[in-house]
Amino acid sequence: MPFDLILRGGRVIDPSQKLDAVTDVAFAGGKVAAIGSALKADPGTDVRDVPQLIVTPGLIDLHTHVYWGGTSLGIDAEEFCRLSGVTTAIDTGSAGPGNFAGFRKHVIEPSQVRILAYLHVSHAGIFGFSHRIMVGESEELRLMNPIEAAKVADANRDLIVGIKVRVGLHSSGTSGTVPLDIALQVADEVGMPLMAHIDHPPPSYEEVLARLRPGDVLTHAFRPFPNTPATAQGTVKKAVLDARERGVLFDIGHGKGSFAFKTARAMLANGFYPDTISSDIHMLCIDGPAYDQVTTMSKFLCMGMELSDVIAASTVNAAMALRRPELGSLKPGSVGDATLISVRAGQFDYEDAVGEHLIGDRKIVSEGVVIGGRWWHPK
């Protein structure tokens, strides 16, 4: 089969193959076709010379809100992904069983970028999240809709990757772990992982972790006090270490209020890296402090994570959390998505969710996106 596209001469970093080499990547039929030196182009092959750029598997943002027009927090997935180098956006609970059909028909199906979703156990998902209105959907237990959530998740397995619930004072009031317990029943019923949001107690970080199963995701994992994973002495709480040992996954989910440099420094100093790095992009943080996926990745690069580990946390690790091994890799036969980035040197001002600033010496910049084996952006 002739190649549709060849990315020529870039530095290919693909943690799924433990690959870091200057080489070519070719695509055909919407998939990765070959990796190697001096791959042969046919007359109709689109050849892009990228010797100054880094080629990675298509970036996966495990925590986004892209139900644009259907919820007040939703942003436009295509516009965001073009600028952020993301080829797969995972919407985390914007829609529930009562409005997922609209999300699917009006946003997901027309989108050029891949959108997958965690379905919220609450009937209308995250419906009251804006600059003026802030209603915790999990506070009103009458909105919990486990029966319909199970039906909708089962009927949309091509797009729904798990069940979402938000617990904490801001999202579930004083109902504690009750919404989490309901969501876990749905996840068990349909055989899917769960993603749990956590904010201020109740419940406590430890109470949430105690209920999560292997493969479940705790997002906002490096959040500030209260409900932080680090002790006042800068060590990692035992409950956190025990949860990782049994297979619970820790996701960043930066967002508007859920990531602190202080927490991240303590966790990284103890060798506790996030499983996945995600932006939690939505209308209230797209203009700061989160901005986008590559900015979130840049913060971890500037705090000492190796570039290959940062890329892994946004590619192969995310694909494994989604149970979609065809994503997050440039192995031949994988989905034909790739992201081209550069790492610029200089002085860059980064801000966390509590107002602390970090002057970093590097910045990851999206330089191009390949989707389905075709060059997508910039034109």
UniProtKB/TrEMBL annotation:
Zn(2+) 1 binds at H63, H65, K164, D280. It holds the Pfam family Amidohydro_1. Keywords: Hydrolase, Metal-binding, Zinc. Zn(2+) 2 binds at K164, H197, H220. The keyword Hydrolase applies. The keyword DNA damage does not apply. Residues 54-210 form the Amidohydrolase-related domain. GO terms for molecular function: deacetylase activity; hydrolase activity, acting on carbon-nitrogen (but not peptide) bonds; metal ion binding. The modification N6-carboxylysine is found at K164. The record marks R166 as: Transition state stabilizer. This is Amidohydrolase/deacetylase family metallohydrolase. It comes from Bradyrhizobium cajani.
